[in-house]
Design brief:
Number of helices: 13
Largest sheet: 8 strands, mixed
Structural class: alpha/beta
Number of domains: 3
CATH architecture of the largest domain: 3-Layer(aba) Sandwich
Number of strands: 19
Helix content: 25-40%
CATH class of the largest domain: Alpha Beta
Bound molecules: D-glutamic acid
Strand content: 15-25%
CATH topology of the largest domain: Rossmann fold
Shape: globular
Length: 352
């Protein structure tokens, strides 16, 4: 079963990152519409057209379900998407209801793109709430994220100036109504009074995905294998997140003894971990594994992903992701940037 995530850009990686942590053995597709980001300042009609193209591409690539990991595309195009495709399409809405239910004694501040804030969908959602809900469009934050500018003086100055328009001391929570805003949780926390909670709505979206698929996704058995742990890329350009100074690292084995890599010829290991040398991978396409007992195990990797025109990455928990920027596979440099985004999101995860 293939599950696709779609966003205008890199914001939806925040939802994907959580899915990688929560599920196991899943095949994911990720589509960032890098040719057309940002969506939040475009017309509704344009976003409908772009979203239909993106989801059409994903369905043609075998998606059995699509998560629109973008509040803006959900606001503009969810009905059209559901009308056009027979696979389940899960949308993403600002979690203002959760905020109201949890911290509704005080006002909620929703930050989102201009299109989401002006949308009828949000007006209906907020209209049903008892809680006082303020909203603030922050289109520049999308651009900062796309430019990998997360906590620069310019970002801080922009957020300070925009948030100063509100009586922050009165707030109960801040709702991130745009998936790109997940990259800024630390800076937002610095600026907001300490009692204000930040709510992102990712869990609710993944809960809906899981219930929509009725058991089609396996949970990662409560194991928390962070995405910054050992990661394997089936391409020749393998990047390891090794912390050791020796250039070697630990590979995490799944419970059933199989390695969490997309490889053939893996033999059973009776220990929890193997040591491996990245240099062996660079030298030839064979990866040598050494169990703690000293016996050699060999792994054959699939053909280089770039040659095959595929940018698929394998992660712990036996999950894999095939990445697309608009309809193109990513090159090694772009995949490296995705790593930076995922690491940043990993660090932001602890905040609220
Ligand atoms: N990440 C998107 C969202 O959740 C939109 C960002 C944009 O392209 O403007 O709303």
């Amino acid at each position: 079963m293939k599950i696709a995530f779609f966003d205008s850009g890199i914001g939806g990686l925040s939802v994907l990152a959580e899915a990688l942590r929560r599920f196991s053995g899943a095949e994911f597709l990720y589509f960032a519409d890098e040719d057309h980001v940002p969506y939040g300042t475009k017309s509704r009609a344009e976003i409908v057209r772009l979203s239909l193209d993106a989801v059409g591409f994903l369905v043609a690539h075998g998606a059995d379900a699509v998560v629109v990991a973008c509040n803006t595309a959900t606001s503009a195009a969810i009905s059209e998407l559901r009308g056009a495709f027979s696979v389940p399409v899960i949308g993403m809405e600002p979690a203002v209801k959760l905020a109201a239910d949890s911290f509704g004694a005080r006002p909620t501040l929703l930050i989102a793109t201009p299109l989401t804030i002006a949308g009828e969908k949000l007006a209906r959602l907020v209209g049903r709430l008892e809680c006082e809900t303020w909203s603030l469009p922050l289109p520049r934050l999308v651009e900062f994220a796309q430019d990998l500018e997360f906590d620069s003086p310019a970002v801080r100055a922009y957020l300070r100036e925009e948030l100063a328009k509100f009586e922050l001391e009165r707030l109960g929570s801040l709702v991130l109504g745009c998936t790109h805003f997940n990259y800024f949780k630390d800076v937002l926390h610095e600026i907001l009074p300490p009692h204000v909670r930040i709510i992102d709505g990712i869990d609710g979206t993944l809960n809906r995905l899981a219930s929509e698929l009725g058991g089609g996704l396996k949970l990662a058995c409560g194991e928390d294998l962070p995405s910054r742990a050992t990661k394997f890329n089936t391409g020749g350009d393998i990047k390891f997140n090794a912390n050791s100074q020796t250039g070697e690292l630990d590979a995490i084995l799944e419970r059933d003894g199989k390695l969490a890599v997309n490889a053939r010829g893996v033999e059973q290991c009776d220990e929890d971990k193997c040591r491996m040398s990245p240099r062996a991978v660079a030298a030839n396409s064979q990866l040598k594994l050494y169990s703690r007992g000293g016996a050699d195990l060999s792994l054959e990797f699939e053909p280089r992903s770039e040659e095959a025109g595929i940018s698929r990455v394998n992660y712990p928990n036996g999950n894999s992701v095939e990445y697309f920027y608009s309809s193109r596979a990513l090159d090694a440099a772009q995949l490296h940037k995705v790593e930076i985004f995922l690491k940043r999101l990993d660090a932001m995860r602890a905040i609220d």
